[in-house]
Every structure is written in structure tokens, then in C-alpha cells.
UniProtKB/TrEMBL annotation:
It comes from Microbacterium rhizosphaerae. It comes from the Bacteria. InterPro entries: Epimerase_deHydtase, NAD(P)-bd_dom_sf, NAD(P)-dependent_oxidoreduct. This is SDR family oxidoreductase. The lineage of its organism: Bacteria, Bacillati, Actinomycetota, Actinomycetes, Micrococcales. It holds the Pfam family Epimerase. Residues 3-213 form the NAD-dependent epimerase/dehydratase domain.
Length: 291
């Protein structure tokens, strides 16, 4: 299958590109810069120059392909306004690609987040979150699942997608610890975040592209829930900085999300699609952090 990918040079995207190429697919990938284009060519993909804001380019990429995997997102979480702008940009981009795929029965796989459900791990049957700093993305995801005449699919990612100790919410904790000299966690740190290795997540994106039915959502969750205090403990030890609780406000616009207990299950995904995570879990992978 010839697959068009947005976000193909990111932590998840680079793993997805390698996974697809390794299983006989060809890849056309959006590239925002010369360096991104060079990295994609070196990996074996064909770059298509443009950004998520270039709707005509996105339509062309979708038109030239037999399926689309959308991974790109503006990861500026510094202010609510920046988050809202990124959500609006993504919504327009997905709409443009969906217009090209509608009525063709081709797959459009988009990325989503695992929801938080009070008192239990969330499952694939739970709806996308309707509140929180990035809840607006649920509208975009639902538009994909409802796409007429195409195979719209959502792969829900946990709060931390990691590789060699970097990535996701845990990666933000690490960057904060480097900048402040303190490995912090909100509240008592007992809240749990799900996690997955980027290489395991890539395998699920491929499986969903190849065989998932239209209108379905899947959970790329390997660690059902890791306590935030345990993450901070590893980060603090690796960086040789103290570990302690910090006010929720210290974590910026994502503070409320950081303080929420949000474990998630992937039992249905594993059983139905045959997905089996094989790479290191989050706490083991955080041991790769360098001082």
C-alpha cells in the first residue's frame, strides 16, 4: 500500500515510517523543511514538501495514496491560546484529507488520546474526553470516525509515548527537571499515566491501517498505569536532582491533566488486532535518560 503520512519525522512518525517500509508498504511523507525531507529520504520514504497548514498539499498527498496516517500536531502547550490554534489547524488539515478520501473506501488513521475514566482504566468503548485542555481534538477524531465512504480509524495514544527515555508527558517532566533542578510531580504522585514504547505504537498503526474496520478506535497502551511519583523518582536519580511534589500550577496549562489519575486498558485491541507490545516499559526506558 502507498501511504501518506503527516508527522513522519517525529518520535512516533519515524517509527511508523520504518514499520510500514519494513512490512512492504511505500511511504509518501509530509516534510516541513529540507532537514525533514533529508531524514525521510534517508529512511526510504518520499518527501512531500509542505506543512499542516498547506491544505492543497495535504489533499494532493491523500490523492496520491491508498491510505493516510495522520500524526502531525503543533506541540506548543505553553498557553491555552497556542493549544487552541494547534487544534484548529489540525481540524482543517484532517478535513482536507478526509475530503479526498471520502467515497473511496481508503483508510484514514488518525491519532487520538486515551480518555480518563474515574475509578477504572478506560477502554476502547469509552468516548473521547469532552473536557480538558486538548478536548477539542475529540471533534476532529469523531469527524474521521464518521467519514462517509472511507475507512476512518483512531489509534488512541497514552500520555507518554517513549523511546530511549524521551517523549510524552514523562519527557515533559524530564525537561522541567533539567530546567528547574527538581524532579517534580503534582499532588501525591499516586496518579497513574498509561504509556507505550514508540516502536510498539508503530506496529499498532500498521495493523489498524491494514485491517481495522471503519469507525473504530484502538488503544496503543502497553503500561496500563505508571505512578507519576515513580517516574519522577527515576528522573531525579538519573539527573541527580531532588524529587518532590510541586503545585499543579507549576505544570502550566497541562497541570490539571498531569494531576489526573488516568489508567487505560488495551485488552480489546490486543485480542482483536493481535497487537503484542514487546519493547521496554516506561520505567525501564527512563533509565536511558542522560544527565
Amino acid at each position: 500500500m502507498r501511504v501518506f503520512i503527516t508527522g513522519g519525522t517525529g518520535l512516533i512518525g519515524s517509527a511508523v515510517v520504518a514499520e510500514l517500509l519494513g512490512h512492504g508498504h511505500t511511504v509518501l511523507a509530509l516534510a516541513r523543511s529540507d532537514s525533514a525531507a533529508g531524514a525521510l529520504e534517508a529512511a526510504g520514504a518520499e518527501p512531500l514538501r509542505g506543512s499542516l497548514a498547506d491544505l492543497d498539499t495535504l489533499r494532493a498527498g491523500a490523492r496520491r495514496s491508498e491510505g493516510v496516517i495522520h500524526l502531525a500536531f503543533g506541540h506548543d502547550f505553553t498557553t491555552p491560546e497556542a493549544i487552541a490554534a494547534a487544534i484548529a489547524e489540525e481540524n482543517a488539515a484532517v478535513g482536507a484529507m478526509g475530503q479526498e478520501l471520502g467515497g473511496t473506501d481508503r483508510p484514514l488513521v488518525t491519532v487520538a488520546g486515551t480518555p480518563a475514566v474515574p475509578g477504572r482504566p478506560s477502554t476502547e468503548a469509552d468516548p473521547q474526553p469532552a473536557s480538558g485542555p486538548v478536548a477539542g481534538r475529540a471533534i476532529t477524531v469523531q469527524s474521521v470516525l464518521d467519514l462517509a465512504g472511507a475507512r476512518g480509524i483512531a489509534v488512541r495514544m497514552p500520555r507518554t509515548v517513549h523511546n530511549n527515555g524521551a517523549g510524552g508527558f514523562a519527557g515533559i517532566l524530564t525537561r522541567m527537571a533539567r530546567a528547574s533542578g527538581v524532579a517534580g510531580y503534582p499532588g501525591d504522585g499516586a496518579q497513574r499515566w498509561p504509556a507505550v514504547h514508540a516502536l510498539d505504537a508503530a506496529a499498532l498503526f500498521r495493523l489498524a491501517l491494514e485491517s481495522a474496520p471503519a469507525g473504530t478506535a484502538w488503544h496503543a497502551v502497553a503500561d496500563e498505569g505508571v505512578a507519576v511519583a515513580d517516574m519522577a523518582e527515576v528522573i531525579g536519580r538519573r539527573l541527580e536532582v531532588p524529587v518532590r511534589s510541586l503545585p499543579v500550577e507549576a505544570f502550566g496549562p497541562l497541570g490539571v491533566a498531569f494531576a489526573t489519575d488516568q489508567p487505560s486498558s488495551s485488552a480489546y485491541t490486543r485480542e482483536t488486532l493481535g497487537w503484542t507490545p514487546t519493547h521496554p516499559g516506561l520505567l525501564e526506558d527512563l533509565e536511558n535518560i542522560q544527565r
